[in-house]
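**Backbone shape codes:**
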Amino acid sequence: MRFYHILVIIVVFTAVFMAAGYAEQHLCCDERVTRCNVQCYNGDAYLYGDYCYFGNSHSSSCGCSYENREYCPQPGTISGSVCYYGQRDCNHNGCELSTCSIGRYDRCDPDDGCVSYQENCDARDSESGSRFCKSGDVYVQYRDYYWDRYQCSYHTYDKKVESCSHDCENGRCVNRENCDARDGEYGSRFCKSGDVYVQYRDYYWYGYECRYDSRDKKVEDCSYDCENGHCSYQVRVNCDSMDGEYGQRFCKYGDIYVEYRNYYYTDRWECRYTSYEKKVQTCPSGCSNDKCIPVGECSAPYGKRGDKTCSGKKVLECWDGFWVYDKYAQCCTDAECGGGMCVNYTCQLPQPVSQCSNYCMDNKWYHDAVYANGKCNYSIDACDAMNNCIYEEGRKVCYSFSCSNGCIQTGETREFMQLRRNKTLEFNIDVLLTSSSFVLPAKEWLYNGILFGNNKIEVPVNGYVSNVEFTVEKTNSYGNLEIWLDDEMVYSEKPGLGSHVVSVNKTAEKAVIFAGSSAWRIWSPSTYSIDAKLHVTSVVPSSQSFDFYLSQNETQSMEMAMINVPDRITAMVNGHEVEGIMSTGYLNAGKNTVVFEPMEGNIKGVSAITMFFR
């Protein structure tokens, strides 16, 4: 709004001021506003004090005269209910200055005009004090500020900041597990007071994890004594004296076999055995009725060397204990074979055998023959050469092969290995795996433009981020809002005002949130005013490592190595995860390192590496 006035100002100038050249700061005695001793230009205006003088008419002997005067105060001035703000300018149109009607709880800002005190108060809304538990969830005392006459006041209330799926303790969500399910024996059994004991752990919930009390629990009363965690007896049986044949001998693969038992002494002080079918006699001409057939005689049907029998319409001859085709097989035509000869026949001239049959002899497989010069030239597989042994769990396991329409596995034996236990290494373990869920707050005014630069929210996470919640309070939507976890972008959109949730479910070391560039809109940056919360679960395992050393001779003569590891602990030997019997190739001559890590909770126990040597 402009105010136009025609003023009559009476100013008394002294000769001293005129002579000193300060006439420009004063007004001449005239009916119009006048600047003294200046050159007057058309459209010229003059800002003097809180008034704008404009509308010059002519130049008098006194100076430049103006017909109009308009109130033009400094920005931020309140006059009545009017607030003057913005860029002040005085020109031929008068005073250029923005105005607004100021309210009861407004202030006059030189740049923004009428601004509510409440907006300033809202910026002070915040949490007060430590977080606490209430109704099984996490709460905090929250201060909500408002304008009260001449100052910002606030009222407080309990605000829920996190819903707990299980329970809340000391202002944090906790995932309480069933500790009782972990009660039980741990470690190896041992002797105490002549009986067998074991360490027993009784678990209970404490703070944010399962802890335990341990005690020695008796598991067996020994009538005589206890040795190495097992009851022992006054008279120890010599198990080796029990080795031998059991049951009747029998025919198998043309030879005579019997069940053979190898007895051994267990760590529980008792005799156990492994059994296998042992060949006790090789029969050159085969086996019948648990006995070898005399050399040169055939079985099924029985015959002596040189005897003949029939197979279909072909004549077979007994030769070295086997029924074989003669190289010139006698073929019966228009007659039947009986008694090893053709009956009522007209026999063709003997013809060369055009096909050689596969067969077994002396535990060898004769197969895929090539017929030439009246002979069958066979490929021969020696089944005995395929016999082999492996070692597993302190026992030697051997596999034997016999000929039966080819070399097939026909036997398996297990023998207890009397290895020399030369070295046992024990490691006392105390490892802990902790996990906690928490919220990382992040509030910022984000901007990004070619002429304005940019900023970002960068939050160290070091955990598993389930989701990101954020509220957009203000935005011009010139660019996308981007969320990055480490080097991976998980969100890039232009969200509207209000609350948003981005599901992430990723592990990261840091999170970065920023506004994308406004690009060609060089006159303004892209802007977002956001209030964000990152929901993070942090898992921090503690590990223990131990070094041990082996000689070159030990690694070369090592037959087997075993490691026992307590439950819910993983073990790595020289970078290889191991449990139970492990490859001796994992162990080095010189320095070796074993590392233990927990799978859950706080775990204590003893692990041992036992090595056996030839």
